[in-house]
Amino acid sequence: MIHRSGLFSRFLLVLVGVAVVVLCYSLLRENLPDRVTRGWPWQVELLDVQSAVAAVLATGGASLARAQYARTVRPAIGYFGRVVADVSPDGRMAWVCHLCNGGQEVAVTMDLGYWIEYTPAARASGAEDSSEWVTQAVASASVEGLGLMKRQDFALNLVGPGWPISGQQTMLLGWFTEKAMREVENVFVRVRVLDRVGDTHERVVSLLKGADRVPRHPDTPLF
Q1: Is residue 41 reached through a cis peptide bond, with omega within 30 degrees of 0 on the bond before it?
Q2: Domain count, the chain
Q3: Residues 192, 90 within the same domain
Q4: Residues 103 and 186 placed together within one structural domain of the fold
Q5: Where, by residue number, does the polypeptide cross the bilayer (predicted)?
Q6: What are 82's strand-pairing partners?
Q7: Which end of the chain has fewer surrounding CB within 10 Å, N or C?
């Protein structure tokens, strides 16, 4: 999901609209008889036709250039997960999920929200799924409430606003051991980043989608 910057996107479209209206007004006024142009509002000359056409071309060109540049610098936010050995302090294997920026330009983190869903067994023990997006601290505390230990059975990486994700770079989101995955069905992370032109990009990542919940062997490196 992309939220365009109001100042650098919609404002240009407004200028294009104004220029088109002025051009239409100038064309109509140019073709009206003199007796009509002596009355209001046609007696007001905003721009001559040539200047109005130039205004449309200039604002339209600026809008197209902005759109093309926005496409060029747009981050390509994705994610991947794999089984990795020796992630937990006691050497257990864990499912590790990373965020990646496949674009060429840097993206700046604005906000991360978390949504936890538990397994039926965990819910039978009193665990409750999230009802809204929460912070990393609240999400970690919720999982710890099941008797799981942070940084031993699982970890959700703390990423604050302003953290840059360079092009072709990855960022750790979290990891879960087999013990943790017996209790946690899924963890959704809503990632919002800002690109160079001020547009906001939002992606919801499912940390445990396709996870090997009974890991026995580490996966081969991706790169």
Answers
A1: yes
A2: 2
A3: yes
A4: yes
A5: 7-28
A6: 96
A7: C
Choose between 44 and 94: higher pLDDT. 94
Contacts of 130 (CB under 8 A, 6+ apart): 114, 115, 116, 117, 139, 142
Same domain, 150 and 192: yes
Residue 60's CB: how many other CB atoms inside 10 A? 16
Residue with tokens 């109001």: 6
Of the candidates 73, 103, 112, the one whose C-alpha atom is nearest the C-alpha of residue 193 is 112
Phi and psi at residue 200, to the nearest 5°: -100, 130
33, part of any domain: yes
User: Which residue range forms the structural domain that includes residue 45?
Assistant: 2-73
Query: Is residue 221 included in any domain, yes or no?
Result: no
Q: Does 223 fall in a domain? A: no
**Same domain, yes or no, for 81 and 65?**
no
Over residues 76-105, the mean pLDDT reads 91
Name every residue whose Cβ is closer than 8 Å to that of residue 141 and which is 6 or more positions away in sequence. Answer: none
DSSP code, position 134: B
User: Residues 102-156: pLDDT tens digits?
Assistant: 888 899 999 999 999 999 999 998 999 999 999 999 999 999 999 999 999 999 9
For residues 31 and 67, state if they share a domain: yes
Tens digits of per-residue pLDDT, 153-182? 999 999 999 999 998 889 999 999 999 999
